[in-house]
Amino acid sequence: MRCNQLAVCKASSWTYTAASKCPPAMCPAAYADIQSGGQCPVADETCPYAKGTCICNANMGGPARLVDAAIVTTWACFDATVACRSPRPYIGEPCADPARKCDYGSCIGGVELVCTAGLWQEDFPVCAEAN
Length: 131
What we know:
This protein is an all-beta fold. It has no helices and ten strands.
């Protein structure tokens, strides 16, 4: 969901920006089709399913893995919970549990959301860097 459509509030109405230039999704058909830690085709691809969210990433907290001089990308998956649904809510969507935090892979290209003043807002956690 890194390619959400953006809108700007102008004169009390929403104006949408030009059409997105996002690539077509390369997500498997089902959450069960993804093996966490298994190789994936497109770095930074985020695949939301009802059972959870998976992110294709090259930086999994250690040195980059190379195969034939290409960086290997792997899936990292996060199961949905009752408190933190999948697909994730959009930033600005209403929420009812003040200070609730939901991490959708924020340290590997995803996002962490926090319920603030009745709306989901992006939170910026401190992520440990690989040594």
